[in-house]
Amino acid sequence: MGSLAGALGAPQAPSAGQSLAPAQSGGQLSENFNVATQRGSQTFQNTPFGGLSYDVVSYGPNGVPVYSANTSLSPEQQALLNERTYAQLIGGSQAPNLLAGAGYGQAPPWEAIGSMTSGLTGQQLAMETAFLDPFFKMQREQMDTQLQNQGFTPGTTAYNNAMMPMLTGQNLDVSNFLAQAFPSQENFAQSMYAMPYNLASGLMGISAPTMPGSQFVSGPTLGPVDFSGLYRTAAGAGTEEWKAKQAQFTDMVNALGSIGGDIFGMLPI
Residue 121 falls within a domain, yes or no? Predict the structure, then answer.
């Protein structure tokens, strides 16, 4: 029987390389797999705020589709976007005007702030002295009357020395006011100097273009081919094919063996 099987040529079990051959048939299986995966990965998206759709713009090698992703907003969201865009245009156009009107660069900042502080302090001092002068005048008149009743003659050293404490107190009231007014007016001048810049920065911030994001777009999924799985599938198919051929061959040998020795004599040993 062994000689007969050898003479007829028993089917050979598939090797590892033969089993992998179907998985390496020119890469066509990989291409078909990626084409199907990309087509299936472009899923339209719809939300209450808008949606995402895909259009095929061209086809690559082996029919792989090339898509464009198109985002659309709901009518309400589109209206909000239009209003925001209009506000951004207005803000962007007004910011340069604010900066140009501020006079930045015409003088060093400390000079501009110092000049503004002096002007503001002077205005506030003028208002304060206008308020205090009537009271100061009344105090001087009362003190003058008192001193003259006491025998002091206006213009004399004794008279002037007697008037000095009251006049010094009035001057201290003005000096104390300036000591409080100057720092507050300096802070105010600094804020006024920076106000055009801060306003322009805010306007430029709202007018900055909104950059498109990719969080709403799902790109195509091109997964790698599972060659290990394909190998197992191909190897299993090759083994099953070999088993079937082996069974057929065994049946043939058994059938020939039942005919008799004459046939075996005709076969080369």
Answer: yes
Q: How many domains is the chain built from?
A: 1
Residue 204 DSSP symbol: H
Q: Is residue 248 part of a domain?
A: no
What does the angle CA 103 – CA 104 – CA 109 come to, to the nearest 5 degrees? 115
Domain residues for 195?
Answer: 104-206
**What confidence tens digit (pLDDT) does each residue in 121-167 have?**
999 999 999 999 999 999 999 999 999 999 999 999 999 999 999 99
C-alpha 263 chain-centroid distance: 86
Taking each helix axis from N to C terminus, what angle separates 75-102 and 157-206, rounded to the nearest 10 degrees?
A: 140
* pLDDT at residue 269 is higher than 90: no
In whole angstroms, what is the distance from residue 23 CA to residue 31 CA?
A: 12
- Give pLDDT tens digits for 71-91: 888 888 888 888 888 888 888
Classify residue 156: in a domain, yes or no: yes
CA dist 194 and 59 (Å) reads 57
Q: Is residue 232 part of a domain?
A: no
Long-range contacts of 88-95 (CB under 8 A, 24+ apart): 88/206, 88/207, 88/208, 88/209, 89/207, 91/202, 91/203, 91/204, 91/206, 91/207, 92/203, 92/204, 92/207, 94/203, 95/199, 95/200, 95/201, 95/203, 95/204, 95/207
Which of 139, 142, 143 is closest to 163 using CA atoms?
A: 143
Please classify residue 189 by burial: count the beta carbons closer than 10 Å to its beta carbon, then call 0-12 exposed, 13-18 middle and 19+ buried: buried
Instruction: Check residue 90 and give its pLDDT.
Output: 85
